[in-house]
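Annex B. Sample input.
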Amino acid sequence: MTRWRRAVYFALPFGILVVLARIIGLPDALLVFDTALPWYQFLLVAGGLLALVTTFFFGLEIVAGAVLGTLFPDLWHFRKHDHRRAATWDAMAAGVAGLGIAVLASRLMAWFGQLWPAYLPPSPLGGEISSFQPWFQIVANVAGRWLLDITIFAAAIRLLQLGRVQRRVWVLIGVMVLAIPTVSRGALGWVVGLLPVLVVIGAAAAFALLVGRRNRLAYGVGAWFGVVANGVAPFLGGSGLYFQMQGGIALAALLLPVLWLVLTATVHAPTGGTSAAAPRND
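Annex B, continued. Sample output.
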């Protein structure tokens, strides 16, 4: 049974990030504002886009929360201090291991890009560079990407628990769908474009089999570490001091949830009591 109220509460922080990111991005819109148009028209368009984008992404985030809550209802147990405290240290270790796996996967994809630069060009900095506050755009994008990744990962785990024939069919369909954008590049482009997809799938499978296992919190922490690394690395490794500073500020902000999780593991619950066992897979 899907509990939509919980899904809304879960998606609320992500929706707030979307709203703030769009508001912070409004000064950028002034740079392309046609001064021949009335000022009220600009405000109407900007306000309409803000409402449209916020509604769309908040709706997606609610659906993601509903999917996670429906597939794994015991995830809500981590709202309780004892459940988080029992699983946090294993999750932190899994997060570090997940970070290593993400770095290795990134290096492997960079190597593929050197072998076939025409089909796998290097990824430039995203739209954050044109933002009034790039660090906040990085934070908002990383949070949204993390939610998307863990939702896809949760759905993939459930698909793999289906029958053998069904499992193979759905996995094949998923890989083919992910590779569709590379079809127009020809046969070689399709094969080369499929390599990053296989790398991501392999990295996720390695994390699930070797690291995450039965600790559900470990999947969220591991995905967070990996997404943060991929989102911040282009800025920290950039040539401009300004973008390096923005990447550092974003990294500090993105590590705050990890710090909060560690702090909750080092203090006792206000009501006392014994620690509960971490929720496990069925």
